[in-house]
Amino acid sequence: MYRKRNKNQNTANRLDRLILTKLKYVKSKIVFFFSILVFMACVEPFDLEVITTETILIIDGAIDDSSNDQYITVKKFIPSSTGNVRYASEADAKVSIIKDGKEQIDCFYRNNGYYYLPLGFKALVGSKYKLKIVLANGNVYESSEEVMRSTPQITGYTVKFDPKGIKLGENSIPAHLIYLDTKDPIEPGDNFMWSWKLYEKQVVCKTCYGGIFLTSPAPLGKCSPVTALAEAGVEYDYLCQGNCWEIYYSQDLNVMSDAFSQGKEIKNRLVASIPFYQENGFLIEIKQQTVTPSAFQYLKILGNQSQNNGTLVDAPPAALIGNIRNINDSKETVGGYFMVGNSKIKRIWVDRLDAVGSKQYYMLGRKENYEPASGDGSRPPFAPCVISNTRTPLKPEGWPL
After folding, report:
1. Which of 45, 194, 267, 316 is the most buried (most CB within 10 A)?
2. InterPro entries recorded for this chain (predicted)?
3. Residues 6 or more apart from 297 whose CB is under 8 A from it?
4. Are the CB atoms for 179 and 254 separated by under 8 Å?
5. Confidence (pTM)
6. What's the Rg (C-alpha) of the chain?
7. How many CB atoms lie within 10 A of CB 344?
8. Cis bond leading into 380, ω under 30°?
């Protein structure tokens, strides 16, 4: 049995990761406005329909003291003839972090404009860090010097299941809501930022639209077109070969000023709303960081404008410029921000037993549709779990099973 592909369903699939954010992207001539989502969410940039007339360099980076991969992205937003934006990577730049004004830590290029810090790099509380980038054309860019401040511990958490936890247009979907407790130090300037990484057990590692999956060429295989399936709009899903986990990242800007909380406890701060994708449990890694007052203002402006229902009246465009400059041309507009923050991590396993029987949202945005088995048992094949920023065959730290 095959399933015909529905246009509305396809749209839902493409927007699957975006529903967690509840952010409304806006059309604007300020294209670098969106770059903050890259380092905030640690995901690939989305294909946004943004009108622009100017090519703008985007430099984003956030370093901390966690054991995760840390990187700087260097890209350009380039206008097309249609007025939309395409991304162009800067592949031949020299990217480095300057610690305390003397020690230089060089990054290495991997792909797609991503420059990674050495394996095992961790920023230190009390140290000062500055980002330096030299492009292939000789242009030199530097950030302001940022101090790594300490972050208070996460003192507690609460997980609640809400059958209408996430609003989706006029409807809602079931979700687990996660709240954190912490205590704000009495000293001023400890603005907070929260983000998360979600691990869901994945059983589908490949979907072919209008075709079938072949394991050759190894090791990734490919989807081979089949005219009849394409004409009928058929899509087939293929089971993973071995264990696999899907990785989701927070994409909303969850920040808070300490103006009214100095020295007080912060109770029940909502930090994550996780859709009821499946009855299997999930693992979520919550990250709590403090950010500088200037970084907080930058993030706050971005958050306000992204939720502004299509207008940009909250702040003038100049306010969106970050802390990175062309040292030889102060008039050049440079998007993005270099941020330094001490991290406190809390890993939480949620078994979802309190949600059994609720309507699932599904990671694919629909129920799985597998290729029918052949008579000789040779098909369908399994698909590999290809390691990436959004998928891994490696058991996550804290996964109990």
Report:
1. 194
2. DUF4249 (IPR025345)
3. none
4. no
5. 0.77
6. 22
7. 21
8. yes
